[in-house]
Amino acid sequence: MAFSSIFCCVKGSDRKGKAKKQPSWRVFSLKELHSATNNFNYDNKLGEGGFGSVYWGQLWDGSQIAVKRLKVWSNKAEMEFAVEVEILARVRHKNLLSLRGYCAEGQERLIVYDYMPNLSLLSHLHGQHSAESLLDWKRRMNVAIGSAEGIAYLHHHATPHIIHRDIKASNVLLDSDFQAQVADFGFAKFIPDGATHVTTRVKGTLGYLAPEYAMLGKASESCDVYSFGILLLELASGKKPIEKVDLTVKRTITDWALPLVCEGKLSELADPRLSGNYVEEELKRLVLVALVCAQNRPEKRPTMLDVIELLKGEAKEKFTALENDEMFKIPPVVDDDVLSGTEGNADSTASEEKEPKPEIEKIEVQA
Ligand SMILES: Nc1ncnc2c1ncn2[C@@H]1O[C@H](COP(=O)(O)OP(=O)(O)OP(=O)(O)O)[C@@H](O)[C@H]1O
Q1: Ligand 1 atom nearest to CA at 166
Q2: Which has the closest alpha carbon to 208: 341, 342, 352?
Q3: pLDDT-based confidence at 356, cuts 50/70/90?
Q4: Vertex 127, ends 165 and 257: CA angle to 5°?
Q5: Using CA atoms, how far apart are residues 126 and 237, in angstroms rounded to an integer?
Q6: What are the backbone angles phi and psi of residue 172, rounded to the nearest 5°?
Q7: What parts of the sequence cross the membrane (predicted)?
Q8: Measuring CA to CA, which residue among 162, 190, 24, 21 is closest to residue 95?
Q9: 306 among known catalytic residues
Q10: Of 175, 171, 174, 170, nearest in space to 183 by CA
């Protein structure tokens, strides 16, 4: 899809659902972004992802922005850029990172967002802010519910429905009030009406990929639900999606958490940085919902709408059914060797692209 054709169907914003603001994105000039970021100065750099570097900047009106600058121009990068801009331009929700605009001059491709002063969830759980323990239990529950609401909007209210395909801690940003903003739509996909899933190249991040997606390339809303389950476990425990047990063995966060839940040792799941300051009932809700989301069988995973109800404690009967689910009865036999050797340089924060399936994308429509 040529970049010039991308915006033919962009209407500025989908105002249905929980709209927060009026559409407000615009085209920026390269000159304006150079001046806002002090010529993309190294000191302004906020981080780097697969697409390129992200810089802090300030516009002439004093507002703060984050500018994502494409590293190297290629058709693939151009596509990612166009997908992200198109999706962000269509959606508006209090828990989805707002698009301020974009710039496409020569081979330069830049996306401009609102700046999120509290950076990413990753930085609080495992990165530069982790020692400060700014994420108390109340904030964690808010982040869980807020990010679930952002994803539910994509799955159930956006038209056509959207799957994100890269839900992870570095893609949940935090505003000045620690409210979650789901970001990074470069891998997102529209799901046409009536389709149960799209079969596609696998994109996403190791540790967060649903098995049916990683192995068969079947992408659907439930793949996001799986990734969200991993994110919830990370949020509750402060652990990474995949951890090294020793030099050769790696263990997934679900293989660590499920036996503890089955043995009734919920308190061992809580992040030690909380120093025991959490609401037991909420921890239980969060962890059980996380595990039911991150189970291997997609048909058994809840929808994001169910997830919100469960997290908020609004679905008493559903929660009782969840507590009595077979998966929490018998401690699973965990094979710690499962990941050893097979994913030599697996890094839970590094994006991986695998292509187990075709070059062409085919859409499967429900009969
Ligand atoms: N709007 C923003 N406000 C503040 N910081 C941001 C913003 N957008 C991105 N960042 C920071 O920039 C870093 C890089 O973001 P980016 O989305 O490019 O990559 P990523 O999600 O870390 O990795 P990948 O591209 O591999 O998925 C993030 O870790 C985040 O902390």
Answers
A1: 27
A2: 352
A3: very low
A4: 65
A5: 11
A6: -110, 110
A7: none
A8: 21
A9: no
A10: 171
Domains of the chain in sequence order: 15-114 (3.30.200.20), 121-365 (1.10.510.10)
Kindly state the tokens that stand for 180: 């979650």
Residue 219 backbone dihedrals phi, psi, to 5 degrees: -100, 130
Complex ipTM > 0.90: yes
Q: How far is the CA of 147 from the centre of ligand 1 (A)?
A: 16
DSSP state for residue 120 in the 8-state scheme = B
Using an 8 Å Cβ cutoff, are 308 and 149 in contact?
Answer: yes
182 near 95, Cβ under 8 Å? Answer: yes
Using pLDDT thresholds of 50, 70 and 90, give the confidence band for residue 80.
Answer: confident
Q: Region 78-94: what's the mean pLDDT?
A: 86
Task: Please tell me whether the overall predicted TM-score, pTM, comes out greater than 0.95 for this model.
Answer: no
Q: Which of 166, 255, 271, 306 is catalytic?
A: 166
Report the candidate in 72, 71, 101 with the shortest Cα–Cα distance to residue 86.
101
Q: What percent of the chain has pLDDT over 70?
A: 82
- Is residue 352's pLDDT more than 50? no
Atom 24 (ligand 1) nearest CA = 49
Task: Looking at the chain, list the stretches that DSSP marks H as alpha helix, in order from N- to C-terminal side.
Answer: 3-6, 30-36, 75-90, 121-125, 137-152, 211-216, 221-237, 253-262, 280-293, 304-312, 316-323
Only one residue has tokens 């959490």, namely: 278
**Confidence class for position 335, pLDDT limits 50, 70, 90:** low
Secondary structure (3-state) at 190: strand
User: Residue 154 CB: number of other CB atoms within 10 A?
Assistant: 25
pLDDT band at residue 23 using 50, 70 and 90 as cut-offs: low
Give the C-alpha separation, 175 to 143, whole Å: 11
pLDDT at 349: 32
Residue 53 CA to ligand 1 center (angstroms) comes to: 8
Whether the Cβ atoms of residue 78 and residue 51 lie closer than 8 Å to each other: no
- 168's tokens: 């992870």
68 is in an annotated binding site: yes
Q: Using CA positions, which residue lies closest to atom 20 of ligand 1? A: 49
CA 205, chain centre distance (Å): 10
Of the given ranges (40-49, 122-131, 221-230, 284-293), which has the lowest mean pLDDT? 122-131
For 119, the token pair is: 């950076």
